[in-house]
Amino acid sequence: MIVRSRSPLRLGLAGGGTDLSPYCDKYGGCVLNATIDMYAHCTIEMEEDCEGVFFDAQDIGEQFHSSLTGELPLEGRLILHKAVYNRVIREYNHGQPLPIKVYTHCDAPPGSGLGSSSTMVVTMISAYQKLLNLPLGEYDIARLAYDIERVDCQLSGGKQDQYATTFGGFNFMEFYDENRVLVNPLRIRRSILNELETQLLLYFTGVSRSSAKIIDDQVKTTSGNTEKPLQAMHDVKQLAFEMKERLLHSDIDGMSKLFQDSWVAKKATSPAISTPLIEQIEDRAISAGATSLKISGAGGGGFMMLFVDPLKRIAVENALEDLEGTIHPFKFTQEGTQSWKV
């Protein structure tokens, strides 16, 4: 049997960081995000005469092979692949090993700021769900992915990515204590989506980064007694509400202005979010005609989103041409994770 799955990556439009514990546990968090047509992919082949378990992360050139011996130690390479496999056989296959080959790849590199790691976990769960006919709804898949990353693998991070890729589309998400999450889908007119796609430029800085250190720094600064980073996080949350209103009222210019306010507030939550390269990109883009920009994800590198007047887009692209980054065309998507049998 062969099954495949794909799950969309997301753009964090506003509120990123407020989905981190302990901030969201104490104050409540909210995030506005949207999925795009870049994906994490998974194929699972199950053969009864297969003598082991085989993982192949084709985009990063890493492989793992084991005999059918039950749960796999969470060490060495491909820890996320192992952790997903362990959870599946423990909770849904009576602890019995599965004779499978799992192939994965992602359209964006690790550390992209598009939620690629969480999206990969979700797309693997989605493939196992189809393979074993598991009774998992959207909230179940997202929560399982969160537990695998944050509990089983002890990886730092928030909650939005797992829910964004599982549900898909534009969503306003609320995060509370005891891991309570509410996903509110937003219905956006096609004309507004067209204008957003026309005005937004997605730029990869050329630098992948580990989000864990930045996230740990945000947690430290916003949970301590330092008032400025905590107030900045409150501002980030308030701007998410305002960004949602601008979006629903088709106020693209208002969204662009709030983008810049959100970027300023986000940088105030941790000194590691911006870098000299990011500041150089910002200076060049704004000078060439971009109206606002911000990092998607934790910061430090990865992808940046720029609001640009379509008549000045070429000028902005030319201003960034000699840097190491690249521009990535994209479209918004309405579907979340999908899986199917071949």
Notes on the structure:
- With 342 residues, this protein is of the alpha+beta class.
- The chain has two domains: 2-187, 2-Layer Sandwich (Ribosomal Protein S5, domain 2), CATH 3.30.230.10; 190-327, GHMP kinase, C-terminal domain (Alpha-Beta Plaits, 2-Layer Sandwich).
- The chain is built from eleven helices and twelve strands.
- It has helices spanning 23-27, 79-92, 116-132, 138-152, 160-167, 190-199, 211-223, 227-248, 252-267, 276-288, 313-320, and strands at residues 2-14, 29-46, 52-57, 62-67, 100-106, 170-175, 181-185, 200-204, 290-295, 303-308, 326-327, 338-341.
- Strands 1, 2, 3, 4, 5, 6, 7 and 12 form an eight-stranded mixed beta sheet that branches. The protein has a four-stranded antiparallel beta sheet with strand order 9-10-8-11.
- A hairpin with a 5-residue loop joins strand 6 and strand 7 (181-185).
- Helix 3 crosses helix 5 (160-167).
- The longest helix is centred in the last third of the chain and has 22 residues, at 227-248.
- The mean pLDDT is 92.
Secondary structure blueprint with pairings:
Blueprint: E1 2-14, H1 23-27, E2 29-46, E3 52-57, E4 62-67, H2 79-92, E5 100-106, H3 116-132, H4 138-152, H5 160-167, E6 170-175, E7 181-185, H6 190-199, E8 200-204, H7 211-223, H8 227-248, H9 252-267, H10 276-288, E9 290-295, E10 303-308, H11 313-320, E11 326-327, E12 338-341
Parallel strand pairs: 3-5
Antiparallel strand pairs: 1-2, 1-12, 2-5, 2-6, 3-4, 6-7, 8-10, 8-11, 9-10
Helix pairs in contact: 2-3, 2-4, 3-4, 3-5, 4-5, 7-8, 8-9, 10-11
